[in-house]
């Protein structure tokens, strides 16, 4: 039996994150240096065509970097990271925000769930805690309901961007067409008989900058995703 530790890769897509990327990297480094881990934790930044100093900061900090010359969006950036994870034979890959919202202290619980045999593990804010009632959370509820109707499984926080993929899910993600780091993928993987679990996490506000998803865009996004899951996904092979 091999004594080699399982290998985990944090994929950090970044677009114009010069104000937050250094603190995000430092938080990961501090976590690795001060936490006993029974797995190897690596991290890579995928620069998605940033026009600010994001790339310069990452290089100055001597961090592994995939440098996309043009902006491909989150789908393209995360997809590049997943291809890297597959080519370098990682056991798990974790989608991790560059803006400081995701906290590395919850990584071990997600990895443990992966070791238990779950193919996709969602870092969820609402496993042990109730989802707050607000217009923004109404969309989250809509998507959760759509997933429940179409798959029979309850996902309490489908819009969480902190997700772990095991080796099988990485290979499927890279090989299947039209995959994206979105709630539709969570629903699609459930339909494809992948085992999905939520693990309770907490998230904090962005370190700097503004989210693209203001209230109006959030509602439009949530509505589009719910319709996609309910109407379009049944026709997806």
Notes on the structure:
The protein has eight helices and seven strands. The protein is globular, with a radius of gyration of 17 Å. α2 links the parallel β2 (39-48) and β3. α3 (73-87) crosses α6 (167-175), α5 packs parallel to α8 and α7 (183-191) runs parallel beside α8. The mean pLDDT is 90. With 237 residues, the chain is α/β, with parallel strands linked by helices. The chain has a seven-stranded mixed sheet with strand order 3-2-1-4-6-5-7, sandwiched between helices.
Brief synopsis:
This protein has 237 residues and is of the alpha/beta class. It has helices at 21-34, 54-60, 73-87, 107-115, 135-151, 167-175, 183-191, 215-232, and strands at 6-14, 39-48, 65-68, 92-95, 120-124, 163-166, 196-200. The model has no long low-confidence stretch (mean pLDDT 90).
């Amino acid at each position: 039996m091999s004594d080699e530790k399982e290998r985990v890769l944090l994929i950090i897509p970044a677009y114009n994150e010069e104000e937050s990327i250094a603190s995000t990297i430092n938080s990961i480094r501090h976590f690795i240096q001060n936490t006993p881990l029974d797995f190897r934790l690596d991290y890579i930044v995928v620069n998605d065509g940033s026009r600010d100093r994001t790339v310069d900061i990452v290089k100055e900090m001597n961090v592994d970097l995939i440098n996309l010359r043009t902006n491909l969006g989150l789908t393209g950036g995360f997809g590049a990271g997943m291809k890297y994870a597959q080519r370098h034979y990682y056991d798990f890959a974790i989608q991790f925000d560059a803006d400081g919202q995701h906290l590395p202290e919850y990584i071990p619980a997600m990895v443990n769930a992966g070791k238990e045999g779950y193919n996709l593990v969602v870092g969820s804010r609402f496993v042990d805690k109730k989802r707050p009632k607000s217009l923004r959370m109404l969309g989250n509820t809509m998507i959760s309901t759509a997933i429940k109707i179409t798959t029979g499984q309850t996902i309490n926080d489908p819009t969480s961007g902190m997700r772990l993929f095991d080796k099988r899910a990485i290979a499927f993600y890279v090989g299947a067409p039209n995959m994206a780091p979105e709630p539709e993928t969570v629903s699609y993987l459930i339909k494809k008989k992948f085992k999905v679990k939520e693990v309770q996490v907490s998230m904090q506000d962005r370190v700097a900058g503004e989210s693209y998803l203001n209230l109006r865009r959030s509602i439009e996004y949530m509505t589009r995703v719910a319709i996609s899951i309910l109407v379009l996904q049944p026709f997806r092979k």
